[in-house]
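User: Show me an example of a complex going from sequences to structure tokens.

Assistant: Sure. Here are the input components:
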Amino acid sequence: MNSPNFVSTRNACKLCMPLGAVMVFKGVKGAVPFLHGSQGCATYIRRYVISHFREPLDVAASNFSEESAVFGGRKNLSQGIQNVSLQYLPELIGVASTCLSETMGENLPALLREASTQEGIPPLVGVSTPAYAGTHIEGFHAAIAALVKAFAQKRKRKEKRVGLFPGFVSPADMRYLRELVESFGLEAVVLPDYSETLDGGSWERYENISPGGTTLDEIRSLGSAMATLELGSSLIHSTQTAGAYLSEKFAVHRMSLGWPVGLAETDTLVETLTRISGQPLAKVHRLERGRLVDAYVDSHKVVNGKKAAVFGDADLVAGMAGFLAEIGIQPVLCATGAKGTGLSDTVRSRTADLPGADELKVLEGTDYATLGSELERIKPDLLVGPSKGYFLERSSKIPLLRVGFPIHDRFGAARILHTGYRGTQELLDRIVNLFLEHQQEGSPVGYSYQ
Amino acid sequence: MAEILKDRINQVRRIGEKQEIPQCGRRSTAGSVSQRACVFCGSRVVLYPVADALHLVHGPVGCAAYTWDIRGALSSGPELHRMSFSTDLQEMDVIYGGAGKLEASLLELIRTYQPKAAFVYSTCIAGLIGDDIQAVCRKVSKETGLTVLPVHSEGFKGTKKDGYKAACEALFKLVGTLPPDITHPRRVNLLGEFNIGGETWILKEYFKKMDVQVTATLTGDGRVEDIRRSHCAQLNLVQCSGSMLPLAKMYEKEYGIPYKRVSYFGLEDTAEALYETARFFGGEDLMERTRNLVREETGKVLPALKSYREKLKGRKAAVYVGGGFKAFSLVRALRLLGMGTVLVGTQTGSPEDYEKLRELCDPGTVVVDDTNPVELSAFLSSEKVDLLVGGVKERPIAYKLGIGFCDHNHERKIALAGFEGMLNFAREVYSTVSSPVWRWTARGRRFAP
């Protein structure tokens, strides 16, 4: 089968919009994510996300019945919000719509306005996330934009405050990026911030809402930030993002960058931070950069000339492809399940210098079964993507570097660092060792020195 | 005491304090973070292990994506069930209808994967936009000669139980469509057995030793052809009765095949299931073979179980599972390990199930129906539980509280059925309860000597 053109989706390389919104609301302090629709959506998303993070994730739902599907979900939504308010005493309820409520034509903003007049209800924020209109990544960014639109306020401009929208990164990435930004003497408002809510400690007693997250006041303060850093190559041309809104409404300077994976993209982020803070890169990070360049050199013979297939969310694929190109690994296949991400232009520009650059194939709107048939044709040396690529690894015997989301078959997914000099160093070490291990295992001698 | 929502107060009971059982069979309270899923989920889990069938989810991508390779149901041959197929409806399909896309998807997938039958699952959206799935299935069936069965599993049209029923209805359309094979004198079907971690194979081995033929397993390691012939069985053994009882009743009504409710979890229940089968067919030879089998198999595991019992004696357990029958077995199995159950609950238990739990459990045991994390975590703390038996969604609740956990859901990879399954279970329980890591948690410090 060569590049089969299927109508159906076989082993999807994308998830649904509400999952992205749930992730964002889980990254707001005191918030409870809530889905307006059938309870199955909430349960499935919980199951999927919990298997990756191994942390509690409560997602409430209006728990539609057949009756609500016929007569509307108004009663269920209002009762559901009351019940969540009673049980969780939340500071915010983030309500995402579902395929069901959207197709029924529910007017979520109006329903939420009505529900918020009840007593004892925290602030409510709604976001439209029908699965048929995009992927989990669109849902993620739509939820951030909804939060910012609902809460950001005009206040006196604060010169040191920077809004950081990191994208669907890992908790480890969130911690690292905050550290990096703050090392320039800046004050970072990271949105969302599930670095603790989805990678927290052992608790003294049970917490119905996991500690951590961006506070509502921090979100309010974004209207007075000096700049926003919006990470993700797929967002650069979008006018619908939180950064675009803040720029238009509050004249907050919007800076769109790719994910800082690899030297070039991290350098760009560092230069940006230097420019807005007026401070140079701190020593600890400068040393990390030095070690990374040194490691590029030390490992170059193991990796140079190898070929890789990279798949998953577009921003991660773009970041990984750029990094791989820096060390001489040629991305021959870059693929994502989403559409309209601009992935082709981004990865082509980042890999153009490589000798075999014209071999690169970029697939948008693809699925894992299609990827499988592509791999049979191109036979790369390395797979890079989420653990759902394990089927491909198993059938092709090509090693898989697990990155991004989801990682359901390994431990420590929340602590995988992908970004910055430090994250790139970890990725490099893992890649080099994958090759060394593969080489050693396949060798009749089995050298114990490398 | 936990913050129990007013609407749910009657779904929580303590045995002995009131002579009644929790209210059950209700739809989940809005806003309560139910551990239940939807109608679609019910159908999907029952049909999932049919390994040589095509399973196509007609709807937006989520429903199929979240159920891709989700269960530990093994196959000894084809593995088509481990693929996730979706019509992946887009905005335009929702506006103009998705029937055309469904037909094209079915045709290409049947052509590519050559399944033995196809199940088409309806989802919330497919139901709402009114696609005539039945008509598409009929058309494709005619065109390809393959049995294409619609499954009426629109997510909002009831609870998970309604999904079980929809799956049973689809399965029953296959039954009786191939000539029966009645060469063996003793023939049973295993209903509600899903071959998690190879459990069907363990059970088949027992029946082989008893010289009883397993005609079809529904649906563990399932094959379409076996299901087509399954009407030639003389007895249906129904495990996980919540999901498969409707199907057993269909066999009874249409083919006069009687059924027995059984469980293969724990030594007592497994032995009873085998004896029940032997009694049904009668004959001293069969009974003798069964007695020998039970003696031999229990003999293999008893010494190890005894040593676990010594170490686990007096520990307290909580059980939160899907259906009632599983809960009974777990309470009994934990008792065999010397552990008392102080909290028990189910997602979809019936009044009869809760009545039975009331008889089975000790006074003071908390019984919950369709509970949520807020209640569950509060009771785990107040009842000073050492072990929670449940599913992946409950696991972090236990761990955050510094409590051991054992996965008894269908996502697990370990066989817990049969005599050897009981040993696996004991090992699981022991490995979590006895771990030294708890002493570093707040709960461990509180209970430190």
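The lines above are the inputs; the final block is the predicted structure for all two components together. Chain B has a mean pLDDT of 94.
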